[in-house]
Amino acid sequence: MSQPYSIGTVGTPWGTSEKQSWLQAQSMKRSYDADVVTKILELSARFNVSQYGSLSYEHRVFDLFAIQSPNWTTDKKTILITGGVHGYETSGVHGALEFLEQYGNHYSETFNLIVLPCLSPWGYETINRWNPDAIDPNRSFFNGSPAQESKLAADYLAQFQNNIICHIDLHETTDTDNSEFRPALAARDGITNHNWNIPDGFYLVGHTQKPEPNFQKSIIDEVAKVTHIAPADENKQLIGVPIEQEGVINYDGTKLGLCMGVTDAPYVTTTEAYPDSLKATPQSCIDGQVAAIKGALNYLVNLR
């Protein structure tokens, strides 16, 4: 159990004033426009870039972008890649962009590609899990969502729903999950916080309703070529969940409102890099995300 959070009263959910205090404590630490939008616009020479919405927060407007493969045809199955649902999870954003840069044209010969590289740009800039309303976008993919990040993405993706075969959602698990985000969540909701064991390495979260273990294994095998896979703890668990196989656990992504449940795709996975590992570098985490996408797509190519 962690120490009480700095905002609010233990055991009492936050009201408007506590949420405002939390928001006032946040600050810009990096630039979405310089780090992300610049790269998206560079890719527009090779891919179709469109704006699917915008967010107005703190006197700022953040444009949201989707990137599609140029040779789109209705006879190809569609692959969805999402990053930055939690804006602070850096390698998910840059892994999505680097995949397109290195391999997008190759895989677009076989598949239609849709990439939403950064769903939560305010979270990217302030290095946050939540949006400014203290809402977690990755628990908000459901009808009537209070998170604009989730609603705008879901509304945009609805037009492709019938043809999406695979969704790869790129995430990280970090030490700040225990030092900041889980304590903040407990304070916000007026509950007791119990930190979890942070896995040292890369792992996957499959969907309990469609686990597809061979698909997940293909991803793990590819990622293991570039970075280390998280070992299970002494209870044969990762983040408190029993492992399904090496480096893989399962959540009910639809019930929990996770981004992985936003489509009816039969093949879904959420990646989790660990950037705070002594064995990791920012680039190795990006490499792991790129490898995860390749592992997923190579598996699907071989099914054809």
UniProtKB/TrEMBL annotation:
InterPro entries: Peptidase_M14. Residues 28-304 form the Peptidase M14 domain. Pfam families: Peptidase_M14 (PF00246). The active site is at E272 (proton donor/acceptor). It comes from the Bacteria. PROSITE patterns: PEPTIDASE_M14. Gene3D superfamilies: Zn peptidases (3.40.630.10). Belongs to the peptidase M14 family. This is Peptidase M14 domain-containing protein. The lineage of its organism: Bacteria, Pseudomonadati, Pseudomonadota, Gammaproteobacteria, Alteromonadales.
